[in-house]
């Protein structure tokens, strides 16, 4: 029998060497725009989903070697994150993925910086990230003050025997100031960076960026300069993006371009990216991705993580504040191009500011509101999640001509939503407009009244808004450009404070008696002819 067994062993060995090499795998779990949403929260069907405790069970069930990467906006957003200056976010990210399959044993390997991570200022962000166990990667960022570590443009890691280069790319935000600077890389900058990366002979290259190819408000900050810099020998294999809050987003960027992945927001889910390598040549054979919804009914919640979240939670936010008889959708429906909740907030801002200085009108933007207001009991948690960021109220000057232009440029038409304005204006502003498809400027303002009087192109109006709007950030771009805005910031009032004031002022003695209803007036109708 021994000679026979020996022949079998030899034959098996020959067959194994004759077969193509088995692909070895490395898995990347990607998150972005966590914004301090640590806990499960209800979806539109009132079923709980999301949170670190569910994510932990997903990670502990992973069979392949894995790492965790985040594309930014981790620190600012929900009440607990804001109160801790993002430290709870860092603590939970350091503890995540406690598993023998995590190549680090536990924790995120790296993150980059999002536009809201600077909400508390450079010094606080630097102090917070000094406690992060992973790397802070941003090729376009300088001057972030951290203890015992520095921002790296990229790093080449050895994970599961493979050399993986991760490039970071941060996004500028309203809180960026002082020595902390973020600038864009041009084509030459990308070429130099890629040359430095490939000099270290990586097996795969990952771009970890707070940037999106799916953001309707602003085009990608990266692609126009990056795409011309890519070659067959200097390419990016995976683009892990964020910022637009788009979930379940996987798309190839060109025939030979990288796989773009975006993983939603508020820790509703994570994307599992799988890199397959040939175990004989070490070459990357394929990249695939799958979005995983963090559903407690499917995955359960890891007990130790859930216990820590219970300690972190601000239980006062469970308090009921009002009752919502009918849904208040984020985007407008019906004859008015202005949405209901932004109208209420613009009115509250006008009243609050009028007690402090003379203002002609105020505005509030749809993108600040994170979700629809569902029918039912409205809790403190609902209120802080509707307007999660610390965005201060400000006043500024704007000429009538510039205001009219901005109003025109911020009216949109979409097949699914119809007409809507990105901004709502206080009740002393009335606008009628026509929509002319096919025209270079499809929106024509036909009537514009402020305080019952026709808008004057030459008059300088005093306006109120969230402080980044007159600076031209994001949706505020049409309001930027006036040379003397005379901006004044009120740091004793922010958007969430306005919302709590709206609800607290509702008539009624109990939350059940306080009904949050849509305003009855129409402020921006479209003319049918």
Please tell me about this protein's structure.
The chain is α/β, with parallel strands linked by helices and 529 residues long. The protein contains 13 helices and 28 strands. The strands form 8 sheets. The chain has a 6-stranded mixed β-sheet, with no helix packed on it. A 6-stranded mixed β-sheet has the order 8-9-11-12-14-13, with no helix packed on it. The longest helix has 17 residues, at 2-18. It is globular and about 75 Å long. The model is unreliable at 4-22 (pLDDT under 50).
Determine the number of helices (DSSP H or I, runs of at least 4 residues).
Answer: 13
Which geometry do the CA atoms define?
globular
End-to-end distance, in Å? 96 Å
Low-confidence stretches: 4-22
Quick rundown:
This protein is of the alpha/beta class and 529 residues long. It is built from 13 helices and 28 strands. The longest helix is centred in the first third of the chain and has 17 residues, at 2-18.
Annotate the secondary structure layout:
Blueprint: H1 2-18, E1 23-31, E2 41-42, E3 48-49, H2 52-60, E4 66-70, H3 79-83, H4 87-95, E5 110-111, H5 122-129, E6 135-136, E7 141-142, E8 154-159, E9 162-169, E10 181-182, H6 187-198, E11 204-209, H7 223-226, E12 238-241, E13 249-252, E14 259-262, E15 269-278, E16 284-293, H8 296-299, H9 303-312, E17 320-324, H10 340-354, E18 361-365, E19 376-379, H11 380-386, E20 392-399, H12 400-409, E21 411-414, E22 418-421, E23 423-425, E24 429-435, E25 443-450, E26 453-454, E27 460-466, E28 488-494, H13 495-504
Parallel strand pairs: 1-4, 4-5, 5-6, 9-11, 11-12, 12-14, 18-27
Antiparallel strand pairs: 1-15, 2-3, 7-10, 8-9, 13-14, 15-16, 17-19, 18-23, 20-27, 20-28, 21-22, 24-25, 25-26
